[in-house]
Amino acid sequence: MKTLIVAAALALTCATGAYAASHSETGNPMVGGAPMFMDKNIVENAVNSADHTTLVAAVQAAGLVDTLQSEGPFTVFAPVNSAFDALPAGTVDTLLKPENKDMLTKILTAHVVAGNWSAADIVAAAKSSSDGFYHFNAVSGDALSAQVTPSGSVFIFDESGNAAEVTTADVKQSNGVIHVIDKVLLPK
């Protein structure tokens, strides 16, 4: 399945030139070499990103495809493949086993927030808070917080204090928004 997803992403990447002009007019960033379309849902767009094959495989293994294709809206902090690769050796393979579905679901839903939170919304909330952090809850129930650095970078923190930088913001979807991040957020 992973090979099929990668092959589809590569085929779409080859066709990107044809879409680039019209796609750039939408203001929606490309992700993983693929255009992201505002009229497609989170899953329909994610499967085209060569940078998110591990995330897509994990969403499928956790049985979250239907949820992330539903009306939403959802804000998804989407870790890239290299973020999963940075986990201790064997972690992803262990999480993808059927007997670890509950743990995988908990981790993945720690990356999802109800609502449609643009980067501007997150930045405004963080800047207006008394401690410089915007505190919110993921769908998993885990506490997340966002902070904006003086240079304008946005970081999302998990309950353990691990920070993931938003590397691509505001990838609009028909059922929410994706913010690409460089680390995996882990529940305590």
Automatic annotation (TrEMBL):
Q: What is this protein called?
A: Putative surface protein with fasciclin (FAS1) repeats
Q: Which InterPro entries match?
A: Adhesion/Biosynth-related (IPR050904), FAS1_dom_sf (IPR036378), FAS1_domain (IPR000782)
One Pfam family of this chain: Fasciclin
The source's domain of life comes to: Bacteria
FAS1 domain ranges (all copies): 39-185
Q: Which PROSITE patterns match?
A: FAS1 (PS50213)
Alphabetized, the UniProt keywords read: Signal
Coiled-coil annotation reads: none
Organism for this UniProt entry: Donghicola tyrosinivorans
Q: Signal peptide: which range, if any? A: 1-20
Q: Name one GO cellular component term.
A: extracellular space
